[in-house]
């Protein structure tokens, strides 16, 4: 593979290296030869995570969604009104994700404009590729963390302008209503309008657990179903990423497919706070775009490797109760969901997601034989064995170099 600047410029067979180098006018001294046990993979893509919840990662998993929000999450996120606290946590969060090979992320921030701008500063300085959303929330939440509808919209516009002013091709603002339960009709309507005007991506949650689904049904009796709440407010577009979607009905799945929205499968989160089990095979069979999400901190791991393993485990568990012939998720497919699948979900598949000439070089150098590797290799291991071992057993120690758009960031 040849990389010039940030782009992949050729992919050729190494056996013909001399003639390839000559053909592309490349100096032999700039060639990097990989050792045995090393390989490149496309960078990992996390299609759904909450940067502020890094402050409580690995704790607070003893409540189900609605109680989890009011007991732990809202109080934690409210602390991001303090810019110093925000900078402290966001530095750690973004650094941790990059260290784990996450080159592209769709982040939820908090409702605070300043803290979201700090998050962008940090992402920019560390060189990650990201969608960043200022969370909107004006109802059914504690007074200390509630926005006035007008302020919520105005701050969102200011946030969008400030991100676009950076003119950083790696950074995109994303319109981020937290979820139907904590947004008034007026707010949803204004955000839908903003999405239409700006043509920006949208991210939110949908159909995560049964209590939340019943609650949203009560809150919006005039709509057909949960997905219809978003659709009525113009929030289902080909640039919408919906997290979870565990309990979507036939009608909702058809609507989501029709609107070309993507689903973010957050298997660790769904299991950790006992929300439910998503049948990802059903989504794939329907041709719905699917990426993987860590959903920290309802998911307890910031690593996309964990998101892959969790999706594999959940699929296997689900298969036990399915009729014979049900196709569980093989590891290769989980790997694809965490790379090209995520890129497609974010509408970035013409830029990243795999190694193709013309795409940006977002890549991880994996070394299976690094000192203190969490797994062992043997002389008879094939390349496929090494990849499989890394997916099932590897961690950040094996991810020795990380590149985003050609720039080394680890
Ligand atoms: Zn979430």
Describe, in plain words, how this protein is organized in 3D.
The protein has 410 residues and is α/β, with parallel strands linked by helices. It has 2 domains: 95 residues, Urease, subunit C, domain 1 (Roll); 302 residues, TIM Barrel (Alpha-Beta Barrel). The strands form 5 sheets. It has a 4-stranded antiparallel β-sheet with strand order 3-14-15-16, with no helix packed on it. Strand 15 and strand 16 form a beta hairpin. Helix 3 packs parallel to helix 4 and helix 12 crosses helix 13. The radius of gyration is 21 Å and the shape is globular. The model has no long low-confidence stretch (mean pLDDT 97). The structure holds zinc ion. The site of zinc ion (ZN) has 5 residues, from strand 4.
Jot down its keywords:
410 residues; alpha/beta; TIM Barrel; 4-stranded parallel sheet; 40% helix; 17% strand; binds zinc ion
Structural class: alpha/beta
CATH overall fold name of the largest domain = TIM Barrel
Low-confidence stretches: none
List the ions, cofactors and other small molecules found in this model: zinc ion
Full CATH superfamily name of the largest domain: Metal-dependent hydrolases
Q: Provide the β-strand percentage band.
A: 15-25%
Give me the oligomer status: single chain
Structural domains: how many:
2
Question: What is the overall number of helices?
Answer: 14
Helix content: 40-55%
> Which radius of gyration do the C-alpha atoms yield?
21 Å
Strand and helix order: EEHEEHHEHEEHEEHEHHEHEHHEHHEHEE
Roughly how many Å apart are the termini?
Answer: 20 Å
CATH class of the largest domain: Alpha Beta
Which CATH-level-2 architecture of the largest domain? Answer: Alpha-Beta Barrel
The profile of the biggest β sheet is: 4 strands, antiparallel
What's the β-strand tally?
16
Morphology: globular
The overall pLDDT average reads: 97
**Strand arrangement in the largest pleated sheet:** 3-14-15-16
């Amino acid at each position: 593979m040849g990389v010039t600047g940030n782009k992949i410029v050729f992919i050729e067979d190494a056996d013909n290296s001399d003639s390839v180098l000559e053909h592309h006018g490349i100096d032999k001294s700039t060639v990097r030869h990989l050792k045995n046990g090393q390989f490149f993979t496309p960078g990992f893509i996390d299609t759904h995570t909450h940067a502020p919840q890094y402050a409580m990662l690995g704790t607070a998993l003893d409540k189900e969604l609605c109680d989890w929000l009011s007991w732990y999450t809202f109080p934690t996120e409210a602390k991001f009104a303090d810019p110093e606290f925000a900078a402290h946590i966001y530095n750690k969060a973004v650094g941790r994700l990059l260290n784990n090979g996450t080159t592209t992320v769709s982040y939820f921030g908090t409702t605070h404009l300043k803290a979201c701008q700090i998050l962008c500063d940090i992402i920019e300085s560390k060189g990650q590729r990201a969608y960043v959303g200022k969370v909107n929330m004006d109802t059914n939440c504690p007074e200390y963390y509630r926005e006035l509808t007008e302020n919520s919209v105005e701050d969102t516009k200011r946030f969008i302008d400030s991100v676009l002013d950076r003119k950083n091709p790696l950074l995109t603002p994303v319109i981020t209503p937290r979820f139907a339960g904590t947004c008034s009709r007026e707010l949803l309507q204004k955000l839908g309008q903003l999405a239409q005007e700006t043509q920006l991506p949208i991210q939110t949650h949908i159909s995560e657990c049964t209590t939340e689904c019943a609650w949203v049904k009560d809150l919006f009796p005039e709509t057909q179903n949960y997905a219809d709440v978003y659709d009525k407010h113009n929030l289902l577009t080909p640039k919408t990423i919906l997290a979870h979607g565990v309990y979507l009905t036939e009608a909702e799945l058809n609507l989501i497919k029709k609107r070309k929205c993507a689903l973010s499968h957050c298997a660790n989160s769904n299991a950790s706070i006992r929300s439910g089990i998503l049948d990802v095979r059903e989504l794939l069979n329907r041709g719905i775009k699917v990426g993987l999400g860590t959903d920290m901190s309802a998911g307890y791991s910031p690593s996309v490797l964990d998101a892959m393993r969790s999706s594999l485990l959940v699929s296997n568990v689900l298969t036990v109760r399915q009729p014979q012939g049900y196709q569980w998720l093989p590891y290769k497919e989980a790997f694809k969901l965490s790379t090209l699948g995520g890129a497609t979900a974010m509408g970035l598949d013409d830029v990243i997601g795999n190694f193709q000439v013309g795409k940006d070089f977002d890549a991880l150098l994996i070394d299976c034989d690094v000192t203190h590797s969490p797994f062992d290799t043997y002389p008879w291991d094939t390349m496929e064995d090494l990849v499989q071992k890394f997916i099932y057993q590897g961690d950040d120690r094996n991810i020795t170099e990380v590149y985003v758009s050609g720039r080394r960031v680890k």
